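Researcher: Structure for this, please.
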Amino acid sequence: MPTRLPAASLNRLFGLQLAVARDESHAVCRVVGGELARRYPTPESVPEDLARCIGSSLDGDGREADRVPFILGSCCWLAQVEAEALFPPADFMQHWHVKWQRFHSEAMIKQHCGHKMQKPVRAPERQGRNERCKCGSGRKFKVCCAG
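Model: Predicted structure, token format:
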């Protein structure tokens, strides 16, 4: 039977996720500028549904410790909402268009350059069954130490 989080823990998680989502949504509005920056001058002015929608679609790799509550809160929220809640409102989107520029690509590349690929772990060599046993008896491994 799956373990359920107590309601108080879920509410706290949702609260943390909403606070981070509002901060990040406000930052997005500042970057886009214009009408969005005027409409949402502070993180608290960003409506909850818009903040969660934008917050759930932002990229991030989860390596930052302060993002863990946000990611967990997003998962809980995403499991409970209808698909329509994942799309920003039309009045928000009409101000959203940003022409892609070279620095956007450079920023994305820099974000992922620090991630190192791990080398594959090689299994130690195993002794073959028909090889001479390593104990020094002179017998085959399959009839000596393996048998």
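Researcher: Any notable elements?
Model: The longest helix spans residues 7-32. The CA atoms of residues 25 and 54 lie 6 Å apart.
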